[in-house]
Amino acid sequence: MSFLFGMIINEVPHFGIYFLAASTALAAGQGDLGSTGARVTVAVAALTSLALAYSFWLGTRADRPVTRALDEGLGADWRDHVTTPLRRHRPWARILLTPAYMARRDVRVVRNLSYGDAGRRNLLDLYHRRDTPQNAPVLVYFHGGQYSRGAKSREARPLLQRLASQGWVCVSANYRLRPETTFPGHQIDAKKVIAWMREQGAQYGADPARLFVAGSSAGANMAGLCALTPNDPRFQPGFESSDTTVTGAICFYGFYGHYFGTPPDEPAPPMQPQGYINPDAPPFFIAHGTNDALGTVEGARHFAAELRRTSRNPVVYAELPGAQHNFDLFRSPRCEAVVDGVDAFTARTLAP
């Protein structure tokens, strides 16, 4: 319930303040604040506004844990190795006024490209800069939804638009859902997207040798598993020869555990994706909220700790105070801080 009722207002609480202030001003202008009930209502609105302001303040401070995570995961001198410019300030005008508006003038979205034979569940949207720069790094993104719902045009759009504006080629893909398929059907689709980018990305300026995989919630699970099982024939039936290695993985509010939906009379597959952790795991960026009501923060901590214990490559784990599930739906202060963190993480990973 906390997730359902707080999913939007937790990220854009200032719009709640705008609404309460405007409705109170309207009531005052109409002379409707004279009764005891009206004064009590105004007092409740004032207290609610204070709570919303606190929530907004927590979001504005998300850059601090992100910066700490980068320093801990990449080393305090990581900035000395980054040659591309990083954004110094979040876009406060957009955050305060138009957080749901995602489009950028310099980004083109090519919708509903087919990467498989499962109809609309095997379609992807491709984001690239209108001038189509060549040798562009690639981001492949998978949505959440507990493997049973969701679509490619919902989460992480601030990240997709931002990276595309900087010259990346980004794709957000649908994949088959329950009950149409079960594990490993979703994972096979994810691998097909990577294989498609290897084969088709060059026509959009992509350099598939620099390919990051990302996801939110169940999509983070899939992204992590893609990163930990490169070229694994179990997840590439019929396209075993395709190269599905990745440069790095980005996981937002992931579910890290046994696959949900496993029939009770069947043995569960290994814990995902931590059951596949190995020393050759690529660099990981993991972001999770302390107030996540669907994918526990304890699970994210455990996954990050296991990766650090085993992998030879960097692991960045950013724990976001006050963040709920789905913190990447809007251009909120918190989401933009995480996007800045991803920008820094990928820049350092790609640096020579």
Shape category: globular
Number of strands: 8
Q: What is the straight-line distance between the termini? A: 47 Å
Helix content: 25-40%
- Note the run of SSEs as H and E: HHHHHEEEHEHEHEEHEH
The helix-and-strand class reads: alpha/beta
Q: What is Rg?
A: 21 Å
Beta percentage is: 15-25%
How large is the count of helical segments?
Answer: 10
Averaged pLDDT, please? Answer: 95
List the strand order in the largest sheet.
Answer: 1-2-4-3-5-6-7-8
Poorly predicted segments: none
Let me know the largest β-sheet: 8 strands, mixed
Blueprint of the fold:
Elements: H1 2-6, H2 13-29, H3 36-60, H4 63-74, H5 92-97, E1 107-114, E2 123-129, E3 136-142, H6 157-165, E4 169-173, H7 185-200, E5 206-216, H8 218-228, E6 248-252, E7 284-289, H9 297-310, E8 315-320, H10 333-350
Parallel strand pairs: 3-4, 3-5, 5-6, 6-7, 7-8
Antiparallel strand pairs: 1-2, 2-4
Helix pairs in contact: 2-3, 3-10, 4-10, 6-10, 7-8
Outline:
The chain has 352 residues and is an alpha/beta fold. It has ten helices and eight strands.
Protein model, in words:
Helix content is 38%, strand content 16%. The protein contains ten helices and eight strands. Strands 1-2-4-3-5-6-7-8 form an eight-stranded mixed β-sheet, with helices on both faces. Helix 8 links the parallel strand 5 and strand 6. The longest helix is centred in the N-terminal third of the chain and has 25 residues, at 36-60. The protein is globular.
